[in-house]
Design the sequence.
């Protein structure tokens, strides 16, 4: 069953309540993680906790958050839900207080978690649009500030596409609204390098770690929208979608318009890893 958790209290999904004065509501003052449960087992929990710690450090929140407690809460909620496949979302905010940009010196973190049925089908092929990257300059922090991502994703939906891949002022692809973007060119797997404007995706790190096993050379180098259009294969990857081949970008066909063999190998690799 779907459940929610507020601090240490596990509730029915529709019973969860948070303070109207939470700084997450006022300012997006918090960080989050999303991970998957396959076959009743959490996938890459250690990696997600490690990234959470990095986000907390960068937000000056780490000293007041007990990571062992967070891990226990996640595991307790998943056990209570008792679902073979589930999407686990949780966030930590800087707690409640007056609506002031200065946070209280004695702030106490607030925790919210949900365990739900996967919201995204693991589709194998998608169409995408390009969209300006309007996000803030610290996208390496997995913060609650997602308005630019929401606008880009809904621009894709209005255009009849599945996703939006975003490009910066130099016309370089950063990432998609929800996913990492990768292309295949001449046997190389290319993706933008990690920087302050790229999220350190768990799925990205796993694919790069095992790329050699798939017969692919890794190239961490930015590419333009034009180069994406000319790629042998273009794909998006992420926790819920695994890997999906992009058949069309801005209405233009990529290669032969089919999911390529390298994309399928990446997808199969992630499926095998996630399902044990």
Sequence:
């Amino acid at each position: 069953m779907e459940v929610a958790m507020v601090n240490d209290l596990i509730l029915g999904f529709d019973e969860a309540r948070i303070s109207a004065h939470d700084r997450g509501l006022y300012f997006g003052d918090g960080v989050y993680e999303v991970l998957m449960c396959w076959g009743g087992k959490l996938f890459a929990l250690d990696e997600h906790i490690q990234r959470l710690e990095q986000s907390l450090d960068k937000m000056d929140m780490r000293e007041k958050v007990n990571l062992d407690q967070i891990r226990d809460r996640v595991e307790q909620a998943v056990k209570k839900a008792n679902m073979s496949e589930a999407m686990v979302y949780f966030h930590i905010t800087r707690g409640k207080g007056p609506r002031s940009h200065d946070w209280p010196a004695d702030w106490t973190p607030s925790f919210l978690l949900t365990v739900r049925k996967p919201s995204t089908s693991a589709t194998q092929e998608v169409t995408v649009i390009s969209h300006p990257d309007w996000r803030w300059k610290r996208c390496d922090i997995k913060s609650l500030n997602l308005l630019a991502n929401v606008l880009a994703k809904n621009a894709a939906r209005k255009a009849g596409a599945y996703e939006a891949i975003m490009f910066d002022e130099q016309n370089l692809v950063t990432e998609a609204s929800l996913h990492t973007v990768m292309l295949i060119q001449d046997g190389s797997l290319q993706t933008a390098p990690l920087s302050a404007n790229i999220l350190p995706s768990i799925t990205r790190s796993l694919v790069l770690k095992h790329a050699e096993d798939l017969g692919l050379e890794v190239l961490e180098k930015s590419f333009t929208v034009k180069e994406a259009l000319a790629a042998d294969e273009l794909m998006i990857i992420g926790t819920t979608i695994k890997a999906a081949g992009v058949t069309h970008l801005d209405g233009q066909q990529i290669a032969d318009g089919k999911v390529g063999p390298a994309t399928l190998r990446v997808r199969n690799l992630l499926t095998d890893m996630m399902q044990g």
Q: What stands out?
A: The CA atoms of residues 229 and 252 lie 7 Å apart.
